[in-house]
Q: What sequence folds into this?
């Protein structure tokens, strides 16, 4: 009998069934491989570039949300593409579509975020052409403060768990992070913000075993929190290897003067894409 390769385990299950006194014996083989784990869809791209989307509501997406209802409008820049997948809350890969965070940020109404526009903007630049795809791992939850993303807290541990599951099907290329509005409500949280973000970056890199993992953060757009400018200053002051900041200042906001409009989310996604391409893409292809 031919030897089974070491990287595959084969389980044989035999069962019998009597149909009109006819004995049928069926044998099923189930293969598992370190290269093609069960969570990776057969139609998944041959090479998947994976990105974590994390933070709070503006990363989860509130574009097109008015009075707790999403208008359902999906711009062409955010349309589904078979080469763009998302990791669901159940840790299964599926075709990505808006709202990306619908099964993650479950207590809020999600709309358009920056993730799809980002993915569609980088897709044509990925190598090898035609076989590389994008895997998005939504983790953002609206209304969360940086302390809730500390190591040991539920949101942080869930993000790491999802990231590890995603690596069964590809390599993590970067973390996209948009958070800080909640910390602008408190003087104490604002004062501790820069140190807390720097700790978050160090923890993610350590726990994923990726000491140089790119981290692209978004500096807050204008809003109605009293310490917005101080949080922005903290964000813009972070000076760590492979940490780059995209400034959202001036992007259009919804009527709540806090959340980005759909148009703004598209622009932000494209800005994040350009930042990734300019700073990191050549090094990973």
A:
């Amino acid at each position: 009998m031919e030897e089974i390769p070491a990287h595959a385990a084969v389980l044989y299950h035999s069962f019998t069934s009597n149909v009109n006194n006819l004995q049928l014996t069926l044998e099923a083989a189930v293969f598992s491989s370190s290269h093609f784990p069960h969570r990776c869809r057969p139609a998944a791209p041959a090479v998947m570039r994976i990105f974590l989307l994390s933070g709070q509501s503006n990363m989860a997406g509130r574009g097109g949300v008015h009075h707790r209802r999403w208008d359902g409008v999906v711009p062409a820049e955010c349309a589904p593409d078979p080469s763009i997948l998302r990791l669901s809350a159940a840790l299964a890969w599926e075709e990505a579509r808006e709202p990306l965070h619908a099964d993650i940020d479950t207590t809020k109404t999600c709309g358009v975020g920056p993730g799809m526009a980002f993915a569609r903007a980088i897709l044509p630049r990925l190598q090898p052409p035609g076989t590389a795809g994008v895997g998005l791992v939504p983790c953002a939850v609206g209304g969360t403060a940086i302390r809730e993303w500390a190591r040991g807290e539920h949101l942080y541990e869930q993000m790491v768990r999802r990231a590890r599951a995603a690596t069964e099907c590809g390599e993590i290329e970067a973390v996209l992070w948009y958070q800080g509005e909640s910390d602008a409500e408190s003087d104490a949280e604002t004062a501790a913000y820069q140190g807390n973000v720097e700790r978050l970056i160090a923890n993610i890199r350590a726990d994923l075993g990726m000491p140089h993992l790119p981290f692209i953060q978004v500096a807050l757009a204008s809003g109605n929190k009293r310490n917005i400018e101080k949080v922005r200053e903290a964000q813009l002051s972070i000076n760590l290897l492979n940490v780059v900041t995209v400034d959202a200042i001036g992007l259009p906001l919804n009527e709540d003067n806090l959340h980005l409009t759909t148009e703004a989310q598209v622009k932000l996604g494209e800005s994040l894409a350009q930042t990734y391409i300019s700073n990191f893409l050549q090094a990973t292809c």
Summary: The chain has one domain: 47-284.
